């Protein structure tokens, strides 16, 4: 599991990011869908592109995604001062660490990971099924190397993907 220390560090980083990107303006845009450069965008995406064009340009050039986040977690509050642009990873982490609605999901994820939700029967079945799998020594070595070099990044729906750890 992710340690409390890492979570605190991530929280600090995200608060920093939010503070830097915030623009204090009451401008809002509630149009449901607009088309810019042939792309269909939600109104708040269009507004974000207008105020943070260089962020979007850089993302397009370097082929990573940026997303618009609602600071108060209310997607109907499209005032500019409620919007920030974040990388996908920052966005996922903000919801995992700060969104009150994620609290319940986070608990479920940690229960599944620690196995505390599993019944005695399920536990037995899992260990039985592992007995019949014969991994080669090389495969076992590869698994343990892979485990050391990656960490899980959780999505809001409880699924996850693996990302390489940053170089020390
Ligand atoms: Zn968001």
Outline of the structure:
This protein has helices spanning 4-21, 43-51, 53-62, 88-98, 102-114, 120-131, 137-149; strands at 33-36, 39-42, 66-70, 83-87, 150-154, 160-164. The protein is of the alpha+beta class and 168 residues long. Strand 1 (33-36) and strand 2 (39-42) form a beta hairpin.
How would you describe this structure to a colleague?
With 168 residues, the chain is α+β, with helices and mostly antiparallel strands. The chain folds into two domains: 1-99, no CATH class; 101-168, no CATH class. Helix content is 51%, strand content 17%. The protein contains seven helices and six strands. A two-stranded antiparallel sheet has the order 1-2. β1 and β2 form a beta hairpin. The longest helix has 18 residues, at 4-21. The model has no long low-confidence stretch (mean pLDDT 72). Bound molecules: zinc ion (ZN). Residues 69-70, 91, 95 line the site of zinc ion.
State the helix count.
7
SSE order? HEEHHEEHHHHEE
Low-confidence stretches: none
Q: Name the bound molecules.
A: zinc ion
Shape: elongated
Strand-residue proportion: 15-25%
Q: Which structural class do the helices and strands define?
A: alpha+beta
Compute the CA-based radius of gyration: 21 Å
N/C terminus separation: 19 Å
Summarize the main sheet: 2 strands, antiparallel
């Amino acid at each position: 599991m992710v340690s409390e220390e890492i979570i605190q560090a991530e929280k600090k980083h995200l608060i920093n990011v939010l503070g830097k990107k915030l623009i204090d303006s009451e401008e809002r845009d509630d149009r449901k869908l607009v088309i810019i450069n042939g792309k269909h965008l939600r109104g708040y995406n269009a507004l974000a592109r207008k105020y943070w064009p260089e962020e979007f340009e850089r993302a397009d050039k370097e082929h990573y995604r940026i997303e618009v986040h609602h600071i108060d977690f209310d997607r109907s509050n499209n005032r500019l001062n409620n919007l920030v642009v974040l990388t996908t990873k920052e966005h996922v982490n903000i919801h995992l660490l700060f969104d009150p609605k994620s609290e319940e999901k986070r608990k479920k994820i940690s229960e599944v990971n620690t196995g505390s939700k599993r019944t005695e029967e399920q536990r037995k079945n899992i260990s039985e099924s592992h007995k019949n799998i014969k991994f080669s020594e090389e495969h076992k070595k590869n698994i343990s190397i892979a485990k050391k070099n990656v960490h899980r990044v959780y999505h809001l729906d409880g699924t996850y993907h693996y990302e390489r750890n940053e170089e020390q």
